[in-house]
Specification:
By secondary structure, the chain is of the alpha/beta class. The longest helix has 17 residues. The two termini are 14 Å apart. The chain is built from 14 helices and 17 strands. The chain is 37% helix and 23% strand. The strands form four sheets. The chain has a seven-stranded mixed β-sheet, covered by helices on one side. Strands 5-6-7-9 form a four-stranded parallel β-sheet. It has a four-stranded parallel β-sheet with strand order 11-12-13-14.
Length: 428
């Protein structure tokens, strides 16, 4: 693997910004460069000379850490834009039949290829993804991510009730198949295996206990699941687990809460749930496009963070309506604005890079352009479309330029993507 020098307007975050004028939170070079060696950034700063290396010249464009998606579903690429239902009906009518097809390894492999084609085209270099309950689905996910050299979290979904027979496993089988996946893939290359009970509705107490046993036996594995997305779902979880104090309490009782536990949605939490999530360090994942599309509710970012919760942001494909984190940031801004909250553009891009890396427990590996960090990089063009170019004529600050990208940008703004220093887009 030869050295590589990437030149452009380099931007990453030292810490969370305190507002749109907090330039001290940034590491920004108008004419910057990254020196990459053996898949890592070894130097970052002003461009001063060619160092005798060939240069990937992206001057005029922004060079950022690769975008990070904290919650999405690999087999649901063909579920996007499915009309007319709320969460539980949407699962039954569209999602479960589509996921059942992943029992076929060839179909699972095709979906994995389409999934990573899509995420990379949109500048996303790391995902925390749900596969299906079939081992073939997870195998396809990890095989394809390894072929492309990507840093990923993925998990075989555990579900033993409340779904079609073709998707059900058992508590014992889910445990054993997940443990086999951990032995085969966790810590191999750039892969991590997530312990992945779909949600408390589709896992019996015995299966949740099995998931908790896996989390105790493999503490380096993240946990990912769903929590409090929809009022009907919350009510059903209470009926199925009558001894729990609330929805989050179901997971808490089975040892599934903690600093590497990712809970998608978290729209209708009680005060006790907020306090318990904060105490355990669990992460609430904001999925704005799916929350809007399925009519589930509005994520109270300010309220959750005031209660001490850690948060992340995600596309939630395929309830989500775009694989682009730029589009996701745009919808997040609108969701928060409806509640009188504002997400400034510096914080938005911190969330999609370093913030999400820290939420996933990967802040020492990805999410910035600091020396020693794995060289996942995205190059963004703020003038990518005629409308963006016209608006850019009036831009007077970096924050305005980032807000332009998050509001009007999509995959057309992504000019190049590197994973571990290797160019994946445009295809080499």
């Amino acid at each position: 693997m030869s050295d590589r020098l990437i030149r452009g307007r380099t931007l990453s975050f030292r810490r969370r910004p305190e507002g749109p004028s907090d330039l001290g939170a940034l590491a920004y070079e108008e004419d910057g460069a990254l020196l990459i060696r053996e898949g890592r950034i070894v130097a970052s700063g002003p461009f001063d000379c060619a160092r005798g290396l060939p240069i990937d010249d992206h001057r005029g464009h922004l060079v950022l850490p690769g975008l990070i998606d904290a919650h999405l579903h690999m087999p649901q690429m063909r579920v996007m834009a499915s009309w007319g239902t709320e969460l539980l009906d949407w699962l039954s009518r569209y999602t479960f039949p589509e996921e059942a097809r992943c029992v076929d390894p060839a179909h699972a492999a095709r979906m994995a290829r389409a999934f990573f084609d899509s995420t990379l085209r949109n500048g996303t270099t790391t995902v925390a993804a749900f596969c299906t309950s079939h081992p073939a689905s997870a195998e396809a996910f990890f095989t394809e991510s390894a072929r492309r050299g990507l840093r990923v979290i993925g998990g075989k979904v555990m579900m033993d009730q409340g779904a079609p027979e073709a998707l059900l496993d058992t508590a014992d089988r889910a445990h054993d198949e997940t443990e086999a996946l951990i032995r085969r893939w966790h810590g191999v290359g750039r892969a991590e295996v997530g312990i992945t009970p779909r949600f408390a509705i589709t896992s019996s107490p015995a299966q949740l206990a099995a998931a908790g046993a896996l989390a105790a036996a493999h503490p380096s594995c993240p946990v990912q699941t769903h929590l409090s997305e929809n009022h009907a779902e919350v009510a059903l979880a209470a009926r199925l687990h009558p001894n729990a104090p609330d929805y989050f309490g179901i997971y808490e009782a089975h040892g599934l809460a903690g600093p590497r536990s990712l809970f998608g949605h978290c729209l209708h939490l009680t005060e006790r749930e907020r306090a318990a999530m904060a105490e355990t360090g669990s992460v609430a994942v904001f999925c704005p496009t799916s929350n809007l599309f399925l009519g589930s509710g509005l994520f109270d970012m300010a309220g959750l963070e005031a209660a001490g919760l850690r948060t992340a942001i995600a596309t939630d494909i395929g309830g989500g309506t775009s694989p682009s984190l730029l589009r996701t940031l745009a919808e997040a801004y609108k969701v928060l604005a409806l509640q009188g909250q504002r997400m400034d553009p510096l914080t938005a891009f911190w969330r999609a890079t370093r913030g999400n890396a820290e939420a996933l427990g990967l802040g020492n590996r990805i999410g910035s352009l600091e020396p020693g960090i794995e060289a996942d990089v995205v190059v963004l063009d703020p003038r990518a479309t005629p409308e963006m170019a016209l608006r850019h004529e009036t831009v007077e600050s970096l924050a305005e330029e980032l807000f332009l990208l998050q509001t009007l940008g999509d995959d057309r703004a992504v000019r190049a993507v590197y994973a571990a220093g290797e160019p994946l887009l445009p295809a080499p």
